């Protein structure tokens, strides 16, 4: 009688964790506003101005010169050509702050090349990016709506020319190329401070908030920021 040969048992598949970026545990959904606890924490973080002088994040939002509404735009790095449309400065009681993750010594260069009229600061530690839920990626995604024409399109062309001519040492100071940013609108919280009333976190290197979305959030009636 033939002996029945049993197949050797197959090992059970080992579950593996999905591949994630190194900050996924702190990454939030694109539109999830930070908690009051988080805002209290990050308010004490420092950013650097163009002279390298320190300022608390809270002082930028709530200091004597602060407006009621502050749109904070976190760019990827100081060779990123995406900047907000300058019509925003026409909105009453509204100001714009641009924060990059590179060396503050590049702020003047960036502002000059983009001809961006807003206030600039640097967060080279990336602590604000991290704790406000922004992530790191090199995924391209589709081209952003307001990076194609007008002032912003010209800014990107200027940045491309500047990168070609920039010394290598400047390229090393521009910031983490994997870091992506987002937009955060701070408004009064009714208790003397500020809250985030709306935000948009980038999911790839190109998708800042669409221009029409920014217009609708900042000027719902379309009185100043004309719709397309």
TrEMBL record:
Bias (Polar residues): 23-32
Species per Swiss-Prot/TrEMBL record: Penicillium chermesinum
Secretion signal, residue range per the UniProt entry: none
Recorded superkingdom: Eukaryota
Region (Disordered): 1-35
UniProt-recorded name of the protein: Uncharacterized protein
């Amino acid at each position: 009688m033939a002996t029945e040969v049993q197949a050797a048992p197959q090992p059970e598949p080992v579950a593996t964790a999905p591949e994630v970026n190194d900050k996924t545990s702190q990454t939030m959904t694109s539109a999830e506003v930070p908690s009051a606890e988080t805002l209290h924490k990050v308010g004490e973080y420092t950013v650097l101005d163009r002279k390298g002088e320190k300022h608390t994040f809270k002082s930028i939002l709530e200091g004597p010169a602060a407006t009621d509404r502050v749109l904070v735009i976190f760019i990827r790095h100081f060779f990123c050509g995406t900047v907000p449309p300058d019509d925003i400065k026409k909105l009453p009681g509204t100001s714009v702050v641009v924060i990059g993750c590179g060396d503050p010594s590049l702020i003047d260069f960036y502002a000059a090349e983009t001809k961006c009229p807003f206030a600039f600061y640097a967060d080279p530690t990336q602590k604000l990016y991290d704790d406000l839920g922004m992530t790191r990626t090199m995924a391209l995604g589709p081209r952003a709506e307001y990076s194609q024409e007008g002032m912003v399109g010209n800014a990107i062309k200027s940045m491309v020319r500047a990168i070609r001519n920039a010394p290598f040492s400047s390229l090393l100071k521009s910031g983490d190329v994997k870091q992506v940013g987002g937009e955060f609108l701070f408004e009064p919280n009714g208790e003397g401070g500020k809250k985030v009333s709306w935000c948009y976190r980038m999911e790839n290197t190109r998708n800042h908030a669409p221009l029409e979305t920014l217009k609708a959030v900042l000027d719902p009636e379309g009185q100043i920021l004309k719709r397309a």
